[in-house]
């Protein structure tokens, strides 16, 4: 099966490319990239006016299967991913049961294969049951298909356990993803400590708690010589610690989520439960620091932290509502908004959403070089659309962006040389 993408603007930072060209895919691989390619027996996808880039990779999603299939399944999550332009996602282990053994890892991969849409890379637990005590079997988990370890959803409370995890992970070349949260400061909190906690009369989660936890991970990276990846950075103080760690040559990478550069704690005023997320939405000063970190490279990647919840967990008092919001179908336009505002360039956006995630988790993809997997995202940076429940493919609709007008949307999502999502066919 050959696919020829005709007349698009190819943006591929892995090769320093930003030019008009055609792209030919065959047998699941990129085989040619050049102007005016002709191929008679190929399926032609017209890409005039569209951006063609390496498939977007989301380092951080929660697909709720096994155990909470009423919120999202691997199949519905995969559909939301490809509709949002993602060709691959890494799914976090806080399912029920958690992904702390090879059986669960293999189950996730089987479900992903049955869904047959995006690539799903399982992230396994650092500790058994995510209890923060006993390490899981990293070797067995890697062999079963886990690409990283994390106790995401919870931090690893003890520094000594995290130290062991970093040392152990090095033997298996497994990236370690840290959910950086100082529980003794955040416990019982619902919103950012500051304006939001004062206004809503709820217990706050201080920014400094995140910074303290990030500092610990950075020090452990120094102590062990192992790389560490910091998930969902939300604060100015967290960014500053990562910036200084990088300047000191430490092996630390970081991601943030679109809601941390698109929203502030004001979104929670009025007790809007769809804006309840952990870490919480922060101050305007924090939001600006995140933008600057995306621009200057302190933050390496954008990940959604897609966290579906049903009305059961969200249509209730703020204090009882679950943390988390969905993000797979709004990430691309929210990132494009940074381009529109001149904060980052389009190649930098592709770096943040594709090349860097591939590098951090050592995944195939993130490039349109000849011989690379034929994972390609084609998007229209000008397409205007309004976020409504009906437009979203995710099983859950807990988005704080409902009603927003967005600019930019995936048109074709191609995984392994197969068009798994086409908005043009959807429309016709
Ligand atoms: Zn987390």
Ligand roster: zinc ion
CATH hierarchy class name of the largest domain: Alpha Beta
**Mean pLDDT over the residues:** 97
CATH homologous superfamily descriptor of the largest domain: Metal-dependent hydrolases
* Number of self-contained structural domains: 2
Question: What percentage of the residues does DSSP assign to strands (E)?
Answer: 15-25%
C-alpha Rg (nearest Å): 20 Å
What percent of the residues sit in helical stretches (DSSP H or I)?
Answer: 25-40%
Number of strands: 18
Instruction: Please summarize the sheet with the most strands.
Output: 8 strands, mixed
Low-confidence stretches: none
Which key terms come to mind for this protein?
Urease, subunit C, domain 1; 428 residues; TIM Barrel; eight-stranded parallel beta sheet; 23% strand; eight-stranded mixed beta sheet; alpha/beta
């Amino acid at each position: 099966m050959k696919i020829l993408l005709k007349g698009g603007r190819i943006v591929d930072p892995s090769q320093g490319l930003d030019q008009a060209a055609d792209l030919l895919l065959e047998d699941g691989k990129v085989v040619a990239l050049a102007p005016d390619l002709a191929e008679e027996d190929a399926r032609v996808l017209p890409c005039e006016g569209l951006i063609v880039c390496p498939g977007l990779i989301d380092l951080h999603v929660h697909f709720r299967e096994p155990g909470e299939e009423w919120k999202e399944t691997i199949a519905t999550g995969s559909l939301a991913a490809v509709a949002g332009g993602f060709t691959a996602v890494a799914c976090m282990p806080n399912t029920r049961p958690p992904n702390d053994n090879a059986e669960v890892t293999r189950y996730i991969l089987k479900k992903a294969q049955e869904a047959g849409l995006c690539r799903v890379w399982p992230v396994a637990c650092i500790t058994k049951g995510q209890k923060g005590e006993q390490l899981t079997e990293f070797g067995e988990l890697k062999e079963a298909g886990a690409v990283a370890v994390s106790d995401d959803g919870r931090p690893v409370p003890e520094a000594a356990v995290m130290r062991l995890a970093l040392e152990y992970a090095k033997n298996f070349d497994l990236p370690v993803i840290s959910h950086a949260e100082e529980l003794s400061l955040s416990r019982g909190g619902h919103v950012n400590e500051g304006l939001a906690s004062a206004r809503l009369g709820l217990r706050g989660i201080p920014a400094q708690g995140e910074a303290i936890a990030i500092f610990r991970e950075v020090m452990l990276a120094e102590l062990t010589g192992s790389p560490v990846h910091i998930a969902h950075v939300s604060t100015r103080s967290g960014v500053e610690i990562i910036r200084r760690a990088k300047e000191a040559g430490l092996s630390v990478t970081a991601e943030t989520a679109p809601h941390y550069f698109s929203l502030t704690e004001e979104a929670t005023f009025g007790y809007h439960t769809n804006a309840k997320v952990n870490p919480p939405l922060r101050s305007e000063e924090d939001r600006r620091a995140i933008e600057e970190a995306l621009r200057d490279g302190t933050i390496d990647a954008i990940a959604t932290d897609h966290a579906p919840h049903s009305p059961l967990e969200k249509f209730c008092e703020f204090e009882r509502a679950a943390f988390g919001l969905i993000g797979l179908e709004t990430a691309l336009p929210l990132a494009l908004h940074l381009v529109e505002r001149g904060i980052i360039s389009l190649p930098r956006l592709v770096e943040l959403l594709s090349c860097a995630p591939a590098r951090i988790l050592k995944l195939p993809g993130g490039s349109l070089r000849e011989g690379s997997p034929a994972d390609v995202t084609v998007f229209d940076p000008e397409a205007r659309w309004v976020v409504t429940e009906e437009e979203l493919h995710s099983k859950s609709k807990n988005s704080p962006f409902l009603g927003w007008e967005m600019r930019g949307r995936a048109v074709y999502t191609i995984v392994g040389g197969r068009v798994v999502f086409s908005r043009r066919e959807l429309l016709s």
